[in-house]
Structure formats: C-alpha cells, structure tokens
Amino acid sequence: MDRLLQIDTFSRIYQVSRETISGLEKYERLLINANKSLNLIGKSTIDKIWHRHIMDSFQVIDLIDKNDKKLIDLGSGAGFPGIVIAFAAHEKKIPLDIVLVEKSLKKAKFLENFIRTLNLNIKVVCKNILEEKKIIADVFVARAFKPLPIILKLIHNKSLNFKKFIIFLGKTGNQELLQASKSWNIEYKQRVSVTSNDSTILEINNLKKK
Question: Considering the entire predicted model, what is its pTM?
Fold first, then answer.
C-alpha cells in the first residue's frame, strides 16, 4: 500500500480534519529524518508508517473517554502511540494530559524535540518505569514495550493505580493471554486491531494474583 493510499485509508476510517493530517505528516517527516541517526522504527516499516504506526496508534482513542484525565505511555520510543494519541485527543476534543516515559536519554531528547516542533502539550519523563515505586494515571498504554508477563508483574508489583491499562498484542497475543490467565485473574476487554486481524488491543481493568 503506497503512502497516499495509506493516508486516504486513515482519513476515511477516522474522518479527521486537514489540520490533524497536516500535523501527522509533519511528525512523519521529523521521524524519518531522526531515524537516520537513531533507530526509532524498523527501516522495513518506514514506507508503511501511516498503516503500521500512525493508524495502529490512533485506534487507542476509541478506548478513551472524557472522564480519562491522564495517560502514561510506557516505553514511548518514537512516540507511538503517545504522540499520535495527542493528535487524536485534540481532534476528539478530549482534554487529556499525556506523559511519555522513555528510559533512553537519546530517545527522550528526540521526543522532546518532536513535541516542541509539533507544538504539542506533552510531558516527557526519562526514567526506567520498572524502577519507579508508584505511578498513578487513568490510562496506561504499552506498545512494543515488554512481554505480557512482565507487564502484568509491573501492574501488580508497582500497585499501579489505573482505570485502563491498554496493551498492544501481536500474533501470539491470545496464547500469551491464555497462559497468563493461569496465574492471574484478569478483568479485561479485547478487540481486534484495525491494522491486522492477527493483532489485538487488550484493555485491562483489574488484575489480581491467583
């Protein structure tokens, strides 16, 4: 799928404004340029940014409502999904405070540069989330962050205070979830990703050790 077709598909699905498309195109250009010196995304996905990364990230907005005040993106990397969610929240008029957590200082600096250039109201925190004692937010989101078992231990061990913990799962997601259910009581909702029938978006609402 070529770039213009990807943008057209994204626009038809989400019916966003020209302002949002323009902002995302600017983000795309910044990302491609930055990727030359820092491996933010796989080179094989550069010509699929709109489908593989932007549309994949944008779908999270469907799980967020106006009662959700704060979102933390764990291991944000190139800014997916956090930066895209910021565009989506602005489009949907959801006043959402967004924090990008990234342990790599180099990547965190790139994120801060992206945010300044794009004029977005997002905070970047350069920390290893696994070393934090207690973190509070309405929504946590993890995309290409850690394997599901590690994320579940993080939620449990750090006593995370949340309403929704959104996790992107790939082809083995259902098997991972089935295996995890042997050790955890997981209250969750699940939906197929808009970008791949093999991937799912998991929304955890409660978690307890068996």
Answer: 0.94
3-state secondary structure of 164: strand
CATH homologous superfamily of 55-209 = Vaccinia Virus protein VP39 (3.40.50.150)
List, as one string, the DSSP characters of 29-46.
Answer: HHHHHHTTTS-SS-GGGG
Q: Report how far residue 21's alpha carbon sits from residue 5's, in angstroms, rounded to the nearest whole number.
A: 13
What are the 10-residue block averages of pLDDT along the chain, 210 residues in total? 92 95 97 90 92 96 94 95 97 95 94 95 91 84 93 82 92 92 95 95 94
**CA–CA separation, 192 and 194 (whole Å):** 6
3-class state of residue 77 by DSSP: coil
Contacts of 56 (CB under 8 A, 6+ apart): 80, 81, 143, 168, 193, 194, 195
The residues with which 200 forms a beta bridge, in sequence order, are 169, 192
The answer to whether the CB of 120 falls within 8 A of the CB of 83 is yes
